[in-house]
Amino acid sequence: MIYNKKVLEHFTNPRNAGELKDPDAIGKVGNIVCGDVLWIYIKVKKDKDGKEVIDDIKFKTFGCVAAIATSSITTELVKGKTIEEALKITEKEIIEGLGGLPKAKVHCSLLAVRALREAIYQYLKKSGREIPEWLEKEHERIEKQTDAVEKRLC
Amino acid sequence: MKRVYLDNAATTPLDEAVLEAMLPFFREKYGNASSIHEMGREAREAIEKTREIIAKRLNAEPNEIVFTSGGTEANNLAIKGIALANKDKGKHIITQVTEHACVLNACRWLEKLGYEVTYLPVDKYGMVKIEELEKAVRKDTILVSIMHANNEIGTIQPIQEIAKICREHGIYFHTDACQSFCKEPLDMKKMEIDLITINAHKLHGPKGVGALVIKEGTKITPLLHGGGHEFGLRSGTENVPGIVGFGKAVEIMNSQVVEKIRKLRDGLTDRILKEIENVRLNGHPEKRLCSIANFSFLGIEGESLVLRLDSKGIYCSTASACSSKKLEPSHVLKALNLKPEEIQGAVRFSLGKQNSVEEIDYAVDVLKEEVANLRKISPYQP
Question: Where residue A63 sits, what CATH number does that domain have?
Answer without folding.
Answer: 3.90.1010.10
